[in-house]
Amino acid sequence: MSVSSVADGVSDGFALAKAASASAPVALVVDGRQKDLAFVAPQGSDVSIVVSTDDLGREVIRHSTAHVLAQAVLRLYPGAKYSIGPPIQDGFYYDFDVETPFTPDDLEAIEKEMRAIVKENQRFERAEVSREEALELFADQPYKVEIIEGVAGDAEGAEREGGTGEVLTVYRNSVGDDVRYVDLCRGPHIPGTGRIKAFKLLRSSGAYWRGDEKRPMLQRIYGTAWESKDAMQEYLDRLEEAEKRDHRKLGRELDLYSWPSEVGAGIAVWHPKGGILRKEVEDLSRQMHIERGYDPVFTPHLGKSDLWEISGHLDFYSENMFPPMSMEGADYIAKPMNCPFHVLIYRSKTRSYRDLPLRLSELGTVYRFERSGALHGLLRARGLTQDDAHLFCRQDQIVEEMVGVIDFLRDLYAVFGLSPDAVRFSTRPAKSVGSDELWELAEAAIPQALSKAGLEFEVDEGDGAFYGPKIDIDVRDAIGRYWQLCTVQVDFNLPERFGLEYIDADGSRKQPVMLHRALYGSIERFIGVLVEHFAGAFPTWCAPQQVAIIPIADRHVAYAGSVLERVEAAGLRGDVDTSDNTMGAKVRNHQLQKVPYMLIVGDDEAGSETVSVRSRSGKESRGVAVGEFVSRVTAEIQARDTELSF
Ligand SMILES: [Zn+2]
Ligand SMILES: [Zn+2]
Questions:
Q1: The one catalytic residue among 63, 144, 278, 390
Q2: Is 470 annotated as catalytic?
Q3: How remote is the CA of residue 73 from the centroid of ligand 1, in Å?
Q4: Range in 351-360, 460-469, 521-530 with the lowest mean pLDDT
Q5: Do the domain assignments include residue 255?
Q6: Does one domain contain both 523 and 393?
Q7: CA of 340 to the centre of ligand 2 (A)
């Protein structure tokens, strides 16, 4: 075994830089490759320092903390087998094969052991070992053996690991000559465990080895680690806020939707209140599509396998599709996408250049196979309804259509107080269909359209689909989380596969370009995001119940009924709370249900044809004439305001 370099040597040279800034150096990037601080870069190489507050720096800290976690588990559970422990967004995990699942008490004990390891300030040392040495080193660790065998057999994987297939890298944690932990890893790592400033274990759950339900069930421990205690506290606060807003929890409390086990995982049913919310969100979409020159179409939930063969889905997408149903000698498949149906509508008659652009839109429900472990409420489901549209246009119309789509999505998101934030533009991959001319045209059109809309974007070179470039758009919610919602995809493939044509001005036959786009993405996912964004306190226009009228005593019920009549006549959704609850309980219940307005009526109000308005935020306005309340709230709803008018 040869140790290629010893940690903490070069790193001390950064003491000055460290003192000058709150963020400490943790790793290097040398000629595009991540390296330990101790790496001695060859002359002339391009070196940049990764600090603890960089995304990459945090990754290094988190991954190093994962090693500490595994060491703690091996100390406390001598028979444990350890597998892999990568950094993930905001944290890390490590998977273990242990006799029984970890309990919260176990996690506490493990965390304590980790603190001890941090205190020991063990060095992280990188070493290169041969395949044989590695196999010997991890002889009683079957998961490591499987990884070693996999890496050695995979030239590309081995190169990623920094080896040649026969050389692997390991990281040892030691104090003096005492090696306390070894892991198979490509690094980089922080110089010593003492550099871990803030970490916490969060939870554990079962996870199949390699994500394969036929392989052993391992126990995964999740944790988080940060460059400072303050940064971690900020994250934990955010996490707590996110848990309060969890759309599955709020969906239950607000009676919006559920997932009955008899239906099947990942397929929701919508209750009356969720139904109203969804209808409002859909109606907005329908109205805006019509205003923007889209033609609504309807297509079925099933299509014969012939269709999916022509479209190519059976070749390229079958692992995401529900299996076929056989009937009368034909196979039918629940649609995973709406596109082929829209293509058939385009092809149903001869199209002229004057008919273009043709924009076909549909709230189309599709079914996709997602692993049960990947399902997450409405955010990742097996049944989802896309606000889908396909735009068929001439080449000279691509820019204009793109601009139109981006303009549309900005206006749509603005209604919910959201705006496009991170935008990614993915360009031509190595293998692709479509002519150079078409690709050049579309790849020029997208940045042009994004700039026209004033949107900054990142370019993912070569990350486009084989059939065309695309843009992905994320929004940021009320607590700063990013959600990927919208995709706009240019497609040179389906028009070709289905032989789409139009007759041009000169009488020649040309192939149209096709754009796929969904703005909400899916109605389910978008509503899941909305529930979390608003924490269930929806703007009045889409709130399931808008008004609750609360009579102070039984003698005010008749007046409350007359107020309800006027409220309902104006199209508002309300009811009178005639329950036996106390006033306080009635107000509290409606507040928990996040009803925007409570109208409290007693002797004063009945005598003067007024109401006491109490908004869900707790603001009170007394002596408001019923007509005044109705007209202000009606105007608020018509404008689809996100702010309450009282
Ligand atoms: Zn590692
Ligand atoms: Zn499509």
A1: 390
A2: yes
A3: 16
A4: 460-469
A5: no
A6: yes
A7: 8
Q: How far is the C-alpha of 597 from the C-alpha of 228, rounded, in Å? A: 43
The answer on 544 and 508 residing in a single domain is: no
| Cα 87 to ligand 1 centroid, rounded to whole Å | 9
**Domain span at 231:** 2-240
> Could you tell me if 482 and 555 lie in one domain?
no
Q: Is 368 a catalytic residue?
A: yes
Active site residue 386: yes
Please say whether the beta carbons of 507 and 479 come within 8 A.
no
Closest residue by Cα to residue 473 from 522, 385, 406, 377? 406
Mean pLDDT of the chain: 91
268 within domain boundaries: no
Cα(27) to ligand 1 centroid in Å equals 13
Number of domains in the chain: 3
Residue 172 alpha carbon to ligand 1 centre in Å: 9
Q: Is 121 left (phi over 0), alpha (psi -120 to 50) or beta?
A: left
Same-domain check for residues 339 and 433: yes
524 and 554, same domain (yes or no): no
Q: What is the pLDDT of residues 106-154, one digit of tens each?
A: 999 999 999 999 999 999 999 999 889 999 999 999 999 999 888 755 5
CATH code, 119 = 3.30.980.10
Q: How far is the CA of 171 from the centre of ligand 1 (A)?
A: 7
Q: What is the pLDDT of residue 165?
A: 57
Asked whether 277 and 538 are in contact (CB, 8 A), the reply is yes
Angle at 511 between CA 507 and CA 512, to 5 degrees: 110
Ligand 1 is an ion; its neighbours by CB within 5 Å are 185
Tell me, what DSSP letter sits at residue 99?
S
Whether 304 sits among the annotated catalytic residues: the reply is no
Q: Is 339 an active-site residue?
A: yes
- pTM for the complete prediction? 0.80
Residues 162 and 197 in one domain: yes
Structure tokens at 433: 């269909």
Residue 48 has pLDDT above 60, yes or no: yes
Closest ligand by atom to 68 CA: 1
